[in-house]
Amino acid sequence: MTVPKSPYSVTEDTTETLMDWFQLHNKKVAWAGLGLAALIATGWFYNRSQELKAERAEKAYFAAQRSAVAGNLPLAESDLKKMITRYDGAPAAAQARLVLAQVYYEQGKVQEGVNELLKAEDQLTGSKEFGSSAHLVLAGGYEQLKKFGDAAAQYEKAAASARFDADRQRYESHAARAYLSGGNTAKAKEIWTRLGADSKGTVAGEARVRLGEMLAAAQPRS
């Protein structure tokens, strides 16, 4: 009785065919393997290069920050500018930009500080690490420039990107004060009312006091 051959069985002819194929295409297979290895190596070197850049940027940031801590603001400004230019795109450069803005503020160059942040606003505010901080520093600059509406808007954005409820409530209270300073009592009252309604909130007590002050100020004097 003849046993039928399985269509999936490996025969001598099949083996010879595979050998012929590899002999014919062995160079292509080898080059493909080398190409894949090169891609992997390139990816590794790129990642390592980025890691080294980030490490150097962090060291440069701390070196520049020391000048600010020591009170040498002109030198801190110069060092931070150089560091940002050299390592732009690294996380430490984003942090350095926030410090540079505050160094500008301390020297009375408030508009320059705001402009420094606006140059990289999307990068800074879109960062999980520095998003809230960027909004807060920008808000502080706007307040010094008496642009209270812009300051309040930045405080609200900081609140929206805050990780913790306590921080969110504090930033909202800053927004309410900025709105009040700018004459927008309706918006300030709206925020204070919401914060005051949360009995366990971080700023609930202050919110109720502020609401009381606003109510008293609105009463006609006899």
List keywords for this structure.
single chain; 222 residues; mainly alpha; Serine Threonine Protein Phosphatase 5, Tetratricopeptide repeat; 10 helices; disordered N terminus
What is the CATH architecture annotation of the domain at 45-127? Alpha Horseshoe
Q: What global shape is seen? A: extended
Q: pLDDT under 50 segments (min length 5)?
A: 1-10
Strand content: under 5%
Series of secondary-structure elements, N-terminal to C-terminal? HHHHHHHHHH
CATH third-level topology of the domain at 45-127: Serine Threonine Protein Phosphatase 5, Tetratricopeptide repeat
Q: Identify the CATH class of the domain at 45-127.
A: Mainly Alpha
Main sheet: strands, sense, barrel: none
- Measured between the Cα atoms of the first and last residue, the distance is 121 Å
Query: How many helices in DSSP terms?
Result: 10
Record field, number of beta strands: 0
Task: Sum this structure up briefly.
Helix content is 79%, strand content 0%. The chain is mainly α and 222 residues long. Among the domains are: 45-127, Serine Threonine Protein Phosphatase 5, Tetratricopeptide repeat, CATH 1.25.40; 155-221.
